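Homework-ish question, so no full write-ups if that breaks the rules, but can someone show me the predicted structure for this set?
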Amino acid sequence: MTPLTLVESRAIPLPLANVDTDQLIPARFMKRPRSEGYGPFLLHDLRAEPASEAARLDHPTFAGAQILITRRNFGSGSSREAAVYALADFGFRCILAPSFGDIFASNAVKNGVLPAIIAEADAEALLNNETVRSGGAVHIDLAQQIIRVGNHTIGFEIEPVWKTQLLNGWDDIDMTRSYSGAIADFVARDAQARPWAAPSRR
Amino acid sequence: MSSAPRTIIDKIWDAHAIATREDGQTLLFIDRHLLHEGSFHAFDQVRKRGAQLARPDLTFGVADHYVPTRNRTAIAPEIRRMVDQLVDNTTAHGITLFGLDDPRQGIVHVTVPAQGLTLPGLTIVCGDSHTSTHGAFGAYAFGIGASEVAHVMMTQTLWQKRPKRMRVRVDGALPPGSTAKDIALSFIAQVGADGARGHAIEYAGSVVRALSMEGRLTLCNLSIESGGRLGLVAPDETTFAFLKGRPFAPKGEAFERAVADWRALASDDDALFDREIVIDGSEIAPVVTWGVSPEQALPITAAVPDPDRIDDVSRAEAARDALTYMGLSPGMKLSDIRIDRVFIGSCTNSRIEDLRAAAAILAGRHAVVPGLVSPGSAAVKKQAEEEGLDHIFRAAGLEWVDSGCSMCVGMNGDLVPPGERCASTTNRNFKGRQGQGARTHLMSPAMVAAAAITGRLTDMRPLLEGRTP
Ligand code: SF4
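A: Not a homework solution, just the prediction itself:
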């Protein structure tokens, strides 16, 4: 996983609440292998309507944007990691919202995408910010946990563990493997403590 | 471990904690790992690392998301590929699979509990957000993404942060006609679709105690729609009676020993919850959703809300957006909303009790709209046919098909056409969930049956008069 420290890019305002993972990537596209790239399917059905907020994804003003600003409960619903693949493959490295679906946030971090929690009022301010809306640069500093647009600076929240993981580009599996002794001890103890827990075959 | 009073959530957590890092993350042992066709991303990750599965004996595969519900001999190639891929992957890693032709096939959250694989006190994960369903047995069960699925495959563990605990107590008694679905939708409407975020929920109170296992499965299933990490019910005699004799459940002495351990799981009397919500069960009426989030739900006797009268900006805009998508106008009576079709199925409401409840309304009556009834598993289908329920559905004009996720998510091609309105027993009324442009109203199976008969959203209570639910 690529470490994430600073993001400086345009930001796309998506003033929608409850953008669920079914909208982020409709189910019909999920049969494809990741290697094909999921970017074109991001918010596919919303984005297809020229008058929709999501149509900004394809607007030249926001070309190359790595930041998405949106409303509460982003990424709720299905656990499909494909929703994060679609965001990451499109180019997003950071999502700013007042709240995220739990599973989505965890999936995001595992793919090097920062789910930054901002206050509801800050979200509204950013969504209406002139610099943002005209495709100006937004700066995000993960170590300092700050977002800067012009002279305007706001803070954001992120689980400390996720912050460390993102900053370092760490991968869980290697870390877990270093616990193999503890896992084996647990399994031996547990077989005594909960003999009924193993599936009994017919 | 301290002797301080603990919740059932903490008891299960403590029993599975292998190690806790300085940053507070705990490595949890996973007792059951459930896979489906969508797990191919995780298998790809395992393959990329050249790794093996740590515990294939604790891993079970089920074909459900993509399986056809009709004519399983002539399957579209792209669907066939999804099902075959699961067969290949599970075979290569020595995993038991409840595949397309297996009598144990069904929706993962329906068939796995019925097989006795879901037990109180277990940690259960699956790459599916409705894994919370298994909490009905007092299991610690939650949905995970593909990277976590790969992690469990390779290590049989997961790093987790201890969740906050919420208790939802439903007191009193449910009025006739109200179901677990109505409890869940009322709760979600009250706290919001992200109201329980970061929390594990214990459902308690006299109403929950009185629910059957089917009802508890429905209630826990919908935990994720309130944003909760998981939801569970402490095991009791109802749970033990259900489990006894199930194929994969412990047998004989092992069962007795297990029951003794399971009894000890209940939250201690003085255990502290971070949040407590009390709901008066006697006030829960049959509920329907009117919008595009499960939080947009109201009793069937209510009217479509007016966004101009909602104070919160973001909620008002969400309501406006929902009404546009749903093609509804503020103030119209919910019972005046006409529907185009119905769907009875999904891991939320496709168990035998659900089918009986729908059949009780439909018996001797005719549906005025088309509809699909997809039982939750091959076993549920067989039992329903033994009870003659299939005749009732067919005679009413509904299609009786095989088991799978079907129109809950439309991956297998069972779709609601664009612009059409569906009364559905499923769990998500998201835009496009049942098909591009589809409009979904969530409700209980009996409410869907009532809507089928009248062609609009309908209070099922008068239709139940003189009948046994
Ligand atoms: S029935 Fe629907 S919610 Fe349940 S597992 Fe299948 S797709 Fe997911």
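Now go work out the reasoning yourself. Hint: The domain at 6-169 of chain A is CATH 3.20.19.10 (Aconitase; domain 4).
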